[in-house]
Amino acid sequence: IGSHRVKWVELQNSGKLTLTAFSMVPIKKERGEEGIVAAVREAAARSGATSRTVRTALSGQSVIARYILVPKMSREELLSHVEVESDKYIPFNLKDVVLDCHILAEKEGGKMQALVVAAKKETIHHRLALLKAAGLEPELLDVDTFAIVNAFERVLEEKSPSQTHALVDIGARATNVSILLRTVSLFSRDIPIGGNDFTLATSEKMGLEIDRAEV
Question: Rounded to 5, what percent of the chain is helix, strand, coil?
């Protein structure tokens, strides 16, 4: 669910992923949340998908990802450490977020690199409510950045000639950039420039109406 469109994809996994349904529907923003729910319903209907159990992801300022370097420890110890030192890593009150951690790699000197992700509970509950209002059953809620990384890892050839990869996801309002070493995430950043900015610049430069510049 983006800021401009809802994208629906259905995949069948029989050893190799196969695309079985796809649709993309614009959101009628003037209708507010009702417009989002309607777009989700229409995307599901247009796609012809049979499943009503869905997986989706969050992005934006309500989701924070931090890469940290800490002494080597277990995942449980890492989570406790982040909770105790939350002021260092998360610009939200700990009671207002869902927090998770992932160990990325071991480093020299008894250190390790880890990823800390926090998402506001309010944003999570809002997204789940929208999906349920559209008649869907949410199964998994991810973060956009890492959902793309996971998808890339799933389809990456084992003998890729490149060790370093840049994944660039351009949305209507923002662009996300992820840098990977093989399949390990080293860096991710949301940049507040997206397709809308390109359309506006084209419109102003060429003297076109916004709808024409979009095309």
Answer: 35, 40, 25
Lowest mean pLDDT among 71-85, 161-175, 196-210: 161-175
DSSP string for 169-196: EE-SS-EEEEEEETTEEEEEEEES--HH
Q: Residue 122, by phi and psi: left (phi above 0), alpha (psi -120 to 50) or beta?
A: alpha
Instruction: Write down the pLDDT at residue 157.
Output: 63
Q: Checking DSSP bridges between strand 53-58 and strand 137-143, what pairing results, if any? A: parallel
- Residue 160: its pLDDT value, please? 61
| CB-CB contact of 172 with 5 (8 Å) | yes
Instruction: Let me know how many helices (H) and strands (E) the chain has, helices first.
Output: 7, 10
- Cβ neighbours of residue 69 under 8 Å, at least 6 residues apart? 107, 111, 112, 113, 114
164-170 sheet: strands from edge to edge: 164-170, 175-181, 184-191
Give the model's pLDDT for residue 87.
Answer: 87
Q: Write the CB contacts of 147 (distance below 8 Å, at least 6 apart in sequence).
A: 57
Tell me the pLDDT of the chain averaged across its residues: 90
Structure tokens, 115: 């990823």
pTM for the whole structure: 0.81
